[in-house]
């Protein structure tokens, strides 16, 4: 694990193997300003850390996908696992969830509740934390490990109040110059009647619009399912990082098969057609990094995977921090405008 700057922040970590070696991992960090203080400019952070940039990029380069060099890196050899199998792995109940990665990657996480309009939605957890002593805002979609937790988190399907809470925290992060890290794991936004009555579509649309215009670095980490607008609402980011068996799609394979072929049982076929795996998404230039998971299924604890994620997150923060806020917003906009762009091939 790479360390930066100087500081002495300490933090508590969760159970289930998520405890880190605090002495070596958190004694130094990317920055030392407090949560409520006006943060230094992104350029100042970048200059402060320029000496460490090359070493971190080297550590993370093996996970960052350059579409032009994918063949040379053996990228094509990575896609032998059927898409339907990766969907199963992404949905595996034993897979590490957002709570695990928050405890493993960050220290002093302080959760913030409510959308200041209606109520608190537990399916989206957000707050402020330290990442290598740099204050960041973390916004995560949560799934449970048992029935009680899944009922608490609404099986990972956010209501509009959750997206409004996420927007409130994103605006706060922009005000204080904190990078935003979103953790995405949802089958989709909650489709219930009450959610629609409370403005589900409007909340998702406003979240997409807000994240498109934020003047701070935004990094999205896909750890499991990335379904439909429910994922996109928090996924408009400068950098998209996906675990190897995470997925990103317009809807579930079952829904795709039911709509296109009127037969939900053809979901395995649909998964292949939809091109929803991390390697598919990277080949289209949407995902910026794919984190290898090792032998499936991924279970807790997974310190090696956490180390890989950490390296890529640090590298991406260092890459994005020196950029002006207007540049960050424009690059984010252009990244998503290119998605789905078609090239018309004219015959001879």
Structure, described:
The chain has 348 residues and is of the alpha/beta class. Helix content is 41%, strand content 13%. The protein has 15 helices and 7 strands. The longest helix is centred in the last third of the chain and has 18 residues, at 303-320. 48% of the residues are buried. The model is unreliable at 1-28 and 66-77 (pLDDT under 50).
Keywords:
single chain, 348 residues, seven-stranded mixed β-sheet, 15 helices
Topology summary:
Blueprint: H1 22-25, H2 42-48, H3 50-60, H4 83-90, H5 98-105, E1 107-112, E2 124-131, E3 134-141, H6 147-152, H7 160-176, E4 180-186, H8 193-197, H9 200-213, E5 218-226, H10 228-235, E6 239-243, H11 253-260, H12 267-274, H13 278-283, E7 289-291, H14 303-320, H15 325-337
Helix pairs in contact: 3-14, 4-12, 7-9, 9-10, 11-12
Q: Estimate percent helicity.
A: 40-55%
Indicate the overall shape.
globular
* The CATH class: Alpha Beta
CATH superfamily: 2-enoyl-CoA Hydratase, Chain A, domain 1
Radius of gyration: 19 Å
Based on the structure, what is the oligomeric state of the protein chains? single chain
Total strand segments: 7
Helices and strands, in N-to-C order? HHHHHEEEHHEHHEHEHHHEHH
Summarize the entry for a quick read.
The protein has one domain: Alpha-Beta Complex (2-enoyl-CoA Hydratase, Chain A, domain 1), CATH 3.90.226. 41% of the residues lie in helices and 13% in strands. It has 15 helices and seven strands.
């Amino acid at each position: 694990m790479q360390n930066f700057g100087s500081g002495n922040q300490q933090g508590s970590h969760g159970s289930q193997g998520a405890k880190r070696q605090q002495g070596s991992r958190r004694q130094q960090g990317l920055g030392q300003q407090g949560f409520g203080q006006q943060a230094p400019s992104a350029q100042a952070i970048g200059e402060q850390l320029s000496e460490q940039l090359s070493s971190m990029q080297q550590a993370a380069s093996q996970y960052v996908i350059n579409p032009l060099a994918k063949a040379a890196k053996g990228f094509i050899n990575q896609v032998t696992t059927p898409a339907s199998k990766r969907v199963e792995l992404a949905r595996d109940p034993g897979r590490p969830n957002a709570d695990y990665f928050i405890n493993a990657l960050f220290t002093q996480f302080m959760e913030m509740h409510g959308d200041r309009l209606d109520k608190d939605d537990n399916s989206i957890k957000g707050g402020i934390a330290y990442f290598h002593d740099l204050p960041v805002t973390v916004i995560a979609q949560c799934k449970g490990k048992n029935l009680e937790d899944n009922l608490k988190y609404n099986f990972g399907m956010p209501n509009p109040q959750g997206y409004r809470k996420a927007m409130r925290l994103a605006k706060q992060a922009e005000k204080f110059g904190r990078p935003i890290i979103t953790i995405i794991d949802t089958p989709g936004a909650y489709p219930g009647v009450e959610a629609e009555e409370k403005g589900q579509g409007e909340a998702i649309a406003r979240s997409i619009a807000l994240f498109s215009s934020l003047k701070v670095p935004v990094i999205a980490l896909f750890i499991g399912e990335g379904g439909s607008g429910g994922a996109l609402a928090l996924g408009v980011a400068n950098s998209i990082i996906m675990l190897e068996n995470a997925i990103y799609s317009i809807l579930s394979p079952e829904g795709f098969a039911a709509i296109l072929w009127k037969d939900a049982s053809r979901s395995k076929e649909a998964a292949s057609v939809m091109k929803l795996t991390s390697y598919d998404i990277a080949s289209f230039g949407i995902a910026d990094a794919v984190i290898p998971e090792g032998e499936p299924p991924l279970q807790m604890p997974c310190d090696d995977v956490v180390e890989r994620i950490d390296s890529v997150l640090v590298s991406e923060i260092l890459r994005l921090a020196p950029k002006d806020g207007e540049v960050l917003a424009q690059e984010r906009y252009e990244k998503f405008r290119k998605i789905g762009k078609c090239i018309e091939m004219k015959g001879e």
